[in-house]
Amino acid sequence: MAQHSNHADIIVIGGGIAGISAAAELARDAHVLVLERESRIGYHSTGRSAAIYIRNYGNATLRAINAVAEPGLVTPEGVSDFSLLSPRGELMVATEAEMDTFQSYIEGSVGVDCLTSAEAVDLVPILRPEPIAAALYERDAQGIDVDRMLQGYARLLKTRGGRIQPDAPVTQLRHDGVWHITAGGQDYSAPIVVNATGAWADHVADLACVARIGLQPMRRSAAIIPSPEGHDIRNWPLFGSISETWYAKPDAQQLMVSPADQDPVEPMDAWPDDMVLAEGLHRFSEAVTVPVTRVTHSWAGLRTFAPDRTPVVGFTPQSNGFFWLAGQGGYGVQTAPALARLCAALITAQDAPLSSDVIHALSPIRFA
Known about the structure:
Layout: E1 10-13, H1 17-26, E2 32-35, E3 52-53, H2 60-74, E4 85-87, E5 90-94, H3 99-106, E6 113-115, H4 117-123, E7 134-138, E8 142-144, H5 146-159, E9 163-165, E10 170-175, E11 179-183, E12 186-190, E13 192-195, H6 201-207, E14 216-226, E15 238-241, E16 247-251, E17 254-258, E18 263-264, H7 274-287, E19 297-305, E20 312-315, E21 322-326, H8 332-348, H9 356-362
Parallel strand pairs: 1-2, 1-13, 2-9, 5-15, 13-21
Antiparallel strand pairs: 3-8, 4-8, 5-7, 6-7, 10-11, 11-12, 14-17, 14-18, 14-19, 15-16, 16-17, 20-21
Helix pairs in contact: 1-5, 1-8, 2-8
């Protein structure tokens, strides 16, 4: 089969980290083509990620995926010559009113230390000690080099004979035993389609006449502010409120601050809402001893969730070769190594890297 044929064994729609990593894994055993609506891969959620691996982030299903994904981040064979992770840590603080949330987070968590207010301030000296009733520290939370990860998977895909077609928004999907796809004015075909389109995944399902999942894109904003004067922030952990009303993370010699907003929106090239950003920065400023004097840069991305806030991975119950890889929410980068391997295993009928209980929890059949 010619490398540049518009027919493939598998077509992955979506060139974010989910689609590119899955395509790279699938290309080990199949001819794979990725169709990306934008002019470059990773343009939307992937390129706007907070870029941190947190083992205890998410529900029980996600924590199981996180554990399986970690070795692929530490030893990213074929993707990078060295670890995609770097030391960071995560510090979450709780007020008296947030203690129920604090206790819920700790349940089922591993590798987490409970700290006093004073110990939290030792880690991040700008925190106000008075409101802190308790704190927890996950020392094994680590930064992720998202761009190196994405480009590494893209290289692996191409090395295995796969292809990425940019500027190819899908406008038609038709199935007659094989999927016929019109994208960017060109026609493509494959017996299997992987829907890895993030915020647009339900829209692609509509085009394919496949039942929607009920996915909801949610906007998450962030701003860069100057480093607090007189402080070396390079080794500070990511820090924030346990109920996710704000969080902050060192970004070179500056601080990235997010209001941790989750506003439902339509699929779009997201931008920050000035009022939401201002309110989040106010909550941050109330928790620290330094004023927010100016914002040097701001942006927003989309986190897309299924109704149960668990990713959707598997063939549609209609059994027509339409495979869901969607609903990763705010966990898409850190779960990508595990979900890419699962995607390849389910499509090629090989041994899966996750337990049957986790696979069942991820299956789109749960919405049938």
